[in-house]
Write a structure and sequence with these properties.
heterodimer, A: 145 residues, mainly alpha, 0% strand, elongated, B: 165 residues, 7 helices
């Protein structure tokens, strides 16, 4: 049986970066001064904040569920990670290419800083997915011998 | 020909091994009829959705108020239709070669759920079910499409599983 203890240090590093990014994003959006949003309260910003709130709820659920899947249901961890990566990429494509005329993030330095790290998080998730999917295991262990 | 029996045994062993190792049949995983039926539904649903969008965009469907297309919804639908089409092509290629089907299916499922959430949050204020019944029908039945994707994801037979058995 392929176990989580066989995962490389890069995997754990990638996971730490991803968690750090998501937690800092949660912190930033939950503590953003309301005045800052209201001053620039265009329709685009309010829609963006609404959409971000929905996404952050999903992120919070995922952050709490992922360790459970990784440590208890390791067999399904690769599918879960691939789904998360696909979601992160889909959101990125949506924000940059599809919804570019519709949404607008508040002009806050902290939000811009957090958003600029998004690509790094996607790369980390990609690495996690690749490692969980293609990591070589010894033949004896593969069939549960 | 004194050792005819032994030779026959050797021959059958060689042929047996060869058929196990090199048989083309082993790579051909026959999917169940349910799988094929649901996959046909997925293809049909996605293609009708894409065709309907281009018909609405080209003003070919009568009785629909097209003002909503000027609100930025048009470019969003355009990009989404293109992405769904690309994902559909990838899904069919992965089924044909039986490589990475589950991953493509998972990606398509996540993409559909994400776009449904986005549409619900961004365009719920000016989207009414009765205004555009053809498009609304697809928005309402989208969970059916996602369930169909989940179903084929579960019942798909991998090449690895067949080889192990």
């Amino acid at each position: 049986m392929f176990h989580y203890s066989e995962l490389s240090k890069f995997f754990w590093l990638s996971m730490s970066i991803t968690y750090a990014f998501c937690l800092s994003k949660l912190y930033t959006y939950s503590t953003i001064p309301e005045l800052n949003v209201e001053l620039n309260n265009s329709v685009q910003i309010s829609i963006t904040m609404k959409l971000t709130a929905v996404r952050l709820v999903v992120v919070a659920i995922v952050l709490s569920v992922f360790p459970v899947i990784l440590f208890r249901f390791f067999k399904y961890a690769k599918y879960f990670t691939v789904a998360l990566t696909a979601w992160a990429v889909a959101i990125y494509i949506d924000d940059i290419f599809i919804l570019t005329d519709i949404i607008q993030y508040p002009k806050s330095g902290l939000i811009r800083l957090i958003e600029s790290f998004r690509l790094i998080m996607i790369i980390c998730l990609l690495w996690m997915s690749i490692e969980l999917t293609f990591r070589q295991v010894s033949v004896g262990l593969q069939y549960g011998k | 020909m004194e050792n005819k029996n032994i030779n026959d045994l050797e021959l059958s062993t060689i042929l047996g091994t060869a058929s196990d190792e090199w048989s083309n049949d082993k790579n051909n995983v026959v999917q169940s009829s349910t799988f094929r039926l649901i996959l046909s539904f997925i293809n049909l649903y996605a293609l009708i959705l894409i065709a309907l969008f281009f018909m609405v965009k080209g003003n070919l469907v009568l009785g629909i108020n097209n003002n909503f297309l000027e609100t930025g919804f048009s470019s969003v639908l355009n990009s989404r239709a293109l992405l769904i089409f690309l994902l559909l092509i990838s899904l069919n290629i992965s089924v044909y070669f039986n490589v990475g089907f589950k991953y493509i299916c998972l990606i398509m499922m996540v993409y559909m759920i994400n776009s449904a959430i986005d549409n619900a949050v961004l365009f719920s204020s000016f989207m009414h079910l009765t205004d555009r019944p053809y498009i609304s029908a697809f928005h309402v039945t989208r969970p059916l499409f996602i369930i169909a994707l989940l179903w084929v994801f579960i019942i798909h037979k991998d090449k690895e599983k067949i080889t192990k058995n």
